[in-house]
């Protein structure tokens, strides 16, 4: 009898602290709640906004996976912690539960390993190559500026393709710019291309 | 029809800059929260399967959070760059029109 409280005593203290830290980290991760809706600029329209929202959804989904995994693990660890605290009392009434700690701990280890595997898969997508958006013929009223190239994973919103011959898949390097207008479009186009670009969000699709 | 379908665009640059800062703040807050994590891993017994799993999970969670913080930080920076690009294009267009009008 005496060995059960001794075995669970150290573990249950550590597990309780582990559960508490997981709760704290879960609170920290709520900073990323509603990522996909909170950060969608309501007054932004146009091609760049379309790309932005696609990338926003991807990143929001990654945060959601992270939060979901940690929430599940937090609940599981908390449950295990409560179980360990109740176990000595339970064993008094139900001696056959003396082996339950080992079983529950083995299950917890499996849960933690599976969750770690899932976490290890999050956020590894390689950044897409830095390809500037082609600038169409420059017209003061309709040309959108060349902006950081937001990736998108939306299969219903592929990058626009021209009617010419099909480009080779995954063209290396920057895409050629469309011809600028003959009436002084070059300075404007040059200005378009000076913006700093640091693409870091993975491209899906 | 707001013009976006025809290649036009509309943007509130103050809004873009504000959201860019808010996105960056997510990374800052998450990283600050992680720095506040004080669980003492040395209190866990060595050569123990539960210890291994617990520490592995913690490290995987921290690493995944850091990867997403990196991406989020870059995302906010890109949005800030977009706002700057809009401003540059607008300033350039204004300069072109000023010249076209023979104004200086």
Description:
The complex is a heterodimer of chains A (205) and B (104). Chain A has 205 residues and is mainly α. Helix content of chain A is 52%, strand content 0%. In chain A, helix 1 runs antiparallel to helix 3 (47-93) and helix 3 runs antiparallel to helix 4. Residues 1-7, 126-142 and 161-205 of chain A have low confidence and may be disordered. Chain B has a single domain, classed as Helix Hairpins. Helices cover 72% and strands 0% of the residues of chain B. The two termini of chain B are 37 Å apart. The mean pLDDT of chain B is 91. At the A-B interface, helix 1, helix 3, helix 4 and helix 5 of A face helix 1 and helix 2 of B.
Could you please say which CATH topology of chain B applies here?
A: Helix Hairpins
Q: Report the total helices of chain A.
A: 5
Model regions low in confidence, pLDDT < 50 over at least 5 residues of chain A: 1-7, 126-142, 161-205
Label the CATH architecture of chain B. Orthogonal Bundle
Assign the structural class of chain B, choosing from mainly alpha, mainly beta, alpha/beta, alpha+beta, or little secondary structure.
Answer: mainly alpha
Radius of gyration of chain A: 27 Å
| Count of runs of 4 or more consecutive helical residues of chain B | 2
Principal-axis shape of chain A: elongated
Q: Helix and strand succession of chain B?
A: HH
Number of strands of chain A: 0
Task: Look at the structure and give the CATH class of chain B.
Answer: Mainly Alpha
The mean pLDDT of chain B is 91
Distance between the termini of chain A: 59 Å
